[in-house]
Amino acid sequence: MDLNFNRRLSIAPMLDYTDRHERFFLRLLSKHILLYTEMVTTHALIHAGAERFLRHDPFEHPVALQLAGNNPKMLAECSRMGEDAGFVEINLNCGCPSDRVQSGAFGACLMKDKNLVAECISSMREAVSIPVSIKTRIGVDQQDTWEFFHDFVKTIAETGCDVFIIHARKAWLKGLSPKENRTKPPLMYDFVYRLKDEFPHLNISLNGGVQSLNAVEECLKKVDGVMVGREAYENPWFLAEADERIFNGKASAIASRRALLEAFLPYMEKQLKEGCPLTIMTRHLFGLFNGIPGARRYRQILSEEASAKGAGIETVLRAMDAVS
Questions:
Q1: Which pLDDT score, from 0 to 100, does residue 100 have?
Q2: What pLDDT is recorded for position 184?
Q3: Can you say how many angstroms the Cα of residue 163 is from the centroid of all Cα atoms in its chain?
Q4: Cα angle vertex 310, ends 306, 313, to 5°?
Q5: 47-51: long-range contacts, CB 8 A cutoff, minimum separation 24
Q6: Residue tagged active-site, from 78, 94, 96, 161
Q7: Which of 28, 67, 99, 145 falls between 20 and 30 A from 268, CA-CA?
Q8: CB within 8 A of 195, min separation 6: which ones?
Q9: Residue 211 pLDDT exceeds 70
Q10: What percent of the chain has pLDDT over 70?
Q11: What's the whole-number mean pLDDT along residues 130-141?
Q12: What average pLDDT does this structure show over 208-214?
């Protein structure tokens, strides 16, 4: 598997969003995009049961595991667990600014200690044979100069890590919520493009603010890959032409939004038989018909009825019939 090929377009790890059901759904749209799990902390993976966090369907591949933590030994152990579970890459989160990561001193906090990050990456790389990558911001708090960013990347690259996913905003650890940290700090694509120019041997993906395949194609003229986040969740249909346009492959066999939902139904039926509540899956479907007549009624049916006791596929079919 040529992961550098798949990295041309990837879907960001998003807590509470990119679970195994969402990943299966997105894989129906594209054979090639690289998918990521939600961020999983090392403490949770080691102490709360690996099955819960590492479970995935082979159909999801290629899919990578994102870890969060600051203990090199624990990160190495969890990386081995991820490789044994079949993930194709292990990614270290150095960009999340939430209160949760701040209390644990990982995520974006790690940018303040490049040597610890280098130690973590080295331990992870020694523990597995699959690629280890890093997802980071361009800076944190007042440490937001080009020199700081360049030095951070240089230090990590010296470990042998050659895959960097850059959210082209800095993170504010105090004063902004995680949601505000995704929108308020200004995007600085020039930092990411300059990074690729100065480190041509590194595989650099740009993340932040990309909302169309046209934008993906423009970014790919200057970097190796593009990672898309919320747009893939809120408007998944924009990925329908990804295989043809981004990966120079065949057009998707899924011809319409309705066909996509119909293709997802057998998976949902299987999960329902295994005891998965319908609402756990339908929450990923709200954005599918955005802009289509009947979309509001479609969302309303899913929102109000999918959580009812005993709700099944008939609820999804009824919602689908509300759309023109």
A1: 67
A2: 79
A3: 15
A4: 55
A5: 50/81, 50/85
A6: 96
A7: 67
A8: 149, 150, 153, 164, 166, 202, 204
A9: yes
A10: 98
A11: 96
A12: 96
Residues 6+ apart with CB under 8 A from 120: 69, 70, 71, 72, 75, 92, 110
The three state secondary structure string of the chain is CCHHHHCCEEECCCCCCCCHHHHHHHHCCCCCCEEEEEEEEHHHHHHCCHHHHHCCCHHHCCEEEEEECCCHHHHHHHHHHHHHHCCCCEEEEECCCCHHHHHHCCHHHHHHCHHHHHHHHHHHHHHCCCCEEEEEECCECCECCHHHHHHHHHHHHCCCCCEEEEECCCECCCCCCHHHHCCCCCCCHHHHHHHHHHCCCCEEEEECCCCCHHHHHHHCCCCCEEEECHHHHHCHHHHCCHHHHCCCCCCCCCCCHHHHHHHHHHHHHHHHHCCCCHHHHHCCCCCCCCCCCCHHHHHHHHHHHCCCCCCCHHHHHHHHHCCC
Q: Before 62, cis peptide (omega within 30)?
A: yes
At position 158, the amino acid (one-letter code) is E
**Contact call for residues 280 and 62 (beta carbons, < 8 A):** no
Is the full-model pTM beyond 0.85? yes
96 is annotated as an active-site residue = yes
- Domains of the chain and CATH, by start: 3-245 (3.20.20.70), 257-321 (1.20.120)
Pick from 39, 33, 32: nearest CA to 231: 33
Cα–Cα distance, 142 to 139 (Å, whole number):
8
- Mean model confidence pLDDT for the chain: 94
92-104: string of b/e by CB count within 10 Å (b at 16+)? bbbbbbbeebeeb
Residue matched to tokens 């249909």: 237
